[in-house]
Amino acid sequence: MGSGQNFPIAGVSLAVVTFLALLGLGTDFIIALAVLTVWVGSLLVAAGRPPEPPKAKTKQPLTLDSIRDLIENSSIPLVITDRNTIALANLAARRMLGQHVIGQDTRVALRNPDAVQLLGDTGQNEAIVRGLVRRGDIWQINRQMIDDRLAMLEFINQTAEADISRAHTDFVANASHELRTPLAAILGYVETLQDDAGVSSPVAKKFLGIIEREAKRMQALVGDLMSLSRVEAEKHDLPTERIDLAALVERAARDAAGSDRAERLALDLAAAPVVAGDRQQLEQVVRNLVDNALKYGADGTPVAVSLDLAQGDLARIAVADQGEGIAPEQIPHLTRRFYRTDPGRSRASGGTGLGLAIVKHIVERHRGRLDITSELGKGTRVVVRIPLAEPGPESPAPPPDSGSDPALATESD
């Protein structure tokens, strides 16, 4: 309450004191009663007064000194840039890049084309850089804007991880290579025995058929393991070959179908995009997707393979079957190695459980995206998006996207 509400209480107290004096009561009693009256009035005033609002905390401006205190002792190298100049570098960054980097132009300090590209206004916020400090090392650089001037660069050393991955890849590749020789010998002997007129026993023929089928399945598994190890070994190398994707998709899809399943293919190549990629690996992506769709689609139903543009700067390959479909809870696990929704059916059809894992790694190496949608009883659709290549001197720029595909309503382009 304000002072205007204190005045009535004081007036009442004065009236009470005057009235008691007129009654002839003692002075001490009158004074005591007056004090009591004022005290009770003060309590009433305090009880009715609303609480004062808390004082708003003033936001402290972000300064380089406060940022320095936050990042100085981080074990991860961190650099704060002001425009293109290094304004701060924590202890780990100074040990990595040198004590002299503060105040230097960031492009001069990093001296790496991939890292310099990250500093431009390209919208890119992550880069994998080789040989930043020492020959052969691998760094992931993340860029985060703090305000309209300041940005933070985070350097994550991936050299040890890459070395472990390379050792694992080399082991798998060597083991797979060693398995191919005895498998080839086994298959050769089986074919020889099957052609031998002396082997007439039905039991012997049955056993030879089982040996041949299992040896071919192991041969396919060894081939997929070698493919996966090669993709993992090259996952940090961005492909640069310019590829006409329409011709590649048509050729790879027909190869996967073969002469016995060619009539089930329904090709719709609405665009002829050019991408920067690895020809052999992109062919493997299309072959794996088409082969899966033909295996798991209902017999006699078509498999649709389409190629168009998404968002104007992405080539979109879609492969759709009309099979039993996949339960929603299984879709996130489909790209795991050796994962099978139906192990018995997968083995019977010759699947190794590595096809989609290989596709995922190849798409990631090409900086693309893999999406899988499915509906039980209706089929499955797999979509791969690959960034278009930068227009070359003799290549016209790609036409704008003609519109959204209603079949991709559940996917975000």
How would you portray this structure in words?
- The structure is a single chain.
- With 413 residues, the protein is of the alpha+beta class.
- The protein has 4 domains: 46 residues; 88 residues, PAS domain (Beta-Lactamase, 2-Layer Sandwich); 73 residues, Helix Hairpins; 168 residues, Histidine kinase-like ATPase, C-terminal domain (Heat Shock Protein 90).
- The chain is built from 12 helices and 12 strands.
- The strands form 3 sheets. Strands 2-1-5-4-3 form a 5-stranded antiparallel sheet. The chain has a 5-stranded mixed sheet with strand order 7-9-10-12-11, with helices on one face. Strands 6-8 form a two-stranded antiparallel ribbon.
- The longest helix is centred in the middle third of the chain and has 37 residues.
- The protein is elongated and about 125 Å long.
Summarize it.
With about 425 residues, the protein is an alpha+beta fold. The protein contains twelve helices and twelve strands.
Task: Provide tags for this entry.
single chain; 413 residues; alpha+beta; Beta-Lactamase; Helix Hairpins; 5-stranded mixed sheet; 46% helix; elongated
